[in-house]
Amino acid sequence: MSTSVYIGAKEYFPGIGRIPFEGRDSDNPLAYKVYDADKRVGGKTMAEHLRFAVAYWHSFCATGHDPFGPGTRVYPWDAGNTPLARAEAKADAAFEFITKLGVPYYCFHDIDLAPDADDIAEYEANLQHMVGIAGERQKATGVKLLWGTANLFSHPRYMNGASTNPDFAVVARAAVQVKAALEATVALGGENYVFWGGREGYACLYNTDMKREKDNMARFLTLARDHGRSIGFKGNFLIEPKPMEPMNHQYDFDSATVVGFLREHGLDKDFKLNIEANHATLSGHTFAHDLQVASDAGLLGSIDANRGNPQNGWDTDQFPTDLYDTVGAMLVVLRQGGLAPGGFNFDAKVRRESSAPEDLFEAHIGGMDAFARGLEVAHALIESSPLEGWRQDRYASFSSGAGAEFAAGRSSLEALRSLALAQGEPQQRSGRQERYENLINQYLLR
Predict the structure, then answer these.
(1) Could you tell me if 322 and 409 lie in one domain?
(2) Where is the active site (predicted)?
(3) Cα dist. 106→66, 97, 146, 383 in Å?
(4) Catalytic residue list
């Protein structure tokens, strides 16, 4: 938890104080109903389990624009006379919001925090200046950096990709930003560093040497890892899967694809996955599926908490409110022993139609309550319900006898044939899906 509310020279969210926990009977939209940071669930507090973070880009940069019209929100921190003055005001607004919300972490892209510039020296100076400002705000509040990253997808130079670009000059320019963003992350004590390959893929396969591009991406990630370790970064490097959009196909399609890529290129000792719910559903999977694949590989590092709209075919980045999603996610996280040093970053934005300042608070409150309830239910399912026993019993035939020999790799097709011949036709065993689903409902309704 942050230790104090930060108010700079100007208060950007007047009339809103520190968001309290008021419990489930409260009708106050600016209060937590479930998330009680200090409540213990198992051996940890809710704050320790969930490690919530605010996304700098959606919360303080996005104005609600879409392909059909400009933004609907005008931010008072964008009124400064110079780009750096506006960036400093935005930092004040961000730390005021984060501390009033009571969230312990935030995340940023380099050009969310600092003004971008085509001139490399100016870009680096801007970022260094804002790292100093952010460091002062962190020290004053106790808020910490969950992860940093570089925006290698917005600028027109990256229209054909960054590390996968067919023009080596663009690859070198991308390295400028990754080097600077890594150094900023280290300077601010960031616990992870993320790569989201926004345009690392192709729009047209006819003009693409896919093997060359993926090999170049692996080389680039290797150089980034080596530089990060050389400057003292000890955290996880994270790759965030997404199947498409903006490219027709992206090389970090889903969890299974990224796990295979990391193992193929010897990067799985330093890199893990940052799973975003909406990206998982765009790839045709559930949120829980991509979490489980990453966790089974020992590579689930952090989570971007949001959701999509099944009626729209794109990345809508809505705040998470689906309790089935949060229960499924927390079952995976609890079974692997937690997420630290990762966490739950709200890579989500209020809707274009939501233009009041309090909407941003209410969106985060709803997402935090949803995951807090998911945590409570998942913990109860694991510790108090028959769920884990049912799952274990379903695979009991692999725990002894010939099944255990097979599982240990001490069998053969000939041995399995002999066993099948002796046993005859196997009996049908129901998967009992409805029983499992009803159990989830039973614990959600408690």
Answers:
(1) no
(2) 109, 112
(3) 25, 11, 6, 31
(4) 109, 112
Rounded CA-CA distance 271/249 in Å is: 22
Alpha-helix residue ranges (DSSP H) falling in 150-241: 168-187, 210-230
Number of domains in the chain: 2
> pLDDT tens, 252-273?
999 999 999 999 999 999 999 9
User: Do 401 and 56 form a contact (C-beta atoms < 8 A)?
Assistant: no
The verdict on whether residue 276 carries a ligand-binding annotation is: yes
pLDDT at 313: 83
CB atoms within 10 A of CB 50: 27
Same domain, 376 and 414: no
Q: According to the annotation, is 315 in a ligand binding site?
A: yes
Interacting residues of 282 by C-beta distance below 8 A, sequence separation 6+ = 242, 243, 244, 245, 308, 314, 315
240 is in an annotated binding site: yes
Same domain, 246 and 395: no
**The domain boundary residue, chosen from 352, 384, 416:** 384
CA–CA dist 73, 65 (Å, integer): 9
Which of 245, 243, 249 shows the shortest CA–CA distance to 275?
A: 243
Please give the share of the chain, as a percent, with pLDDT higher than 70.
Answer: 99
What pLDDT digit, counting tens, does each position of 306-358 carry? 999 989 888 999 999 999 999 999 999 999 999 999 999 999 999 999 999 99
347 annotated to a ligand binding site: yes
pTM: 0.96
173, 338, 342, 344: which is closest to 271 by C-alpha?
Answer: 342
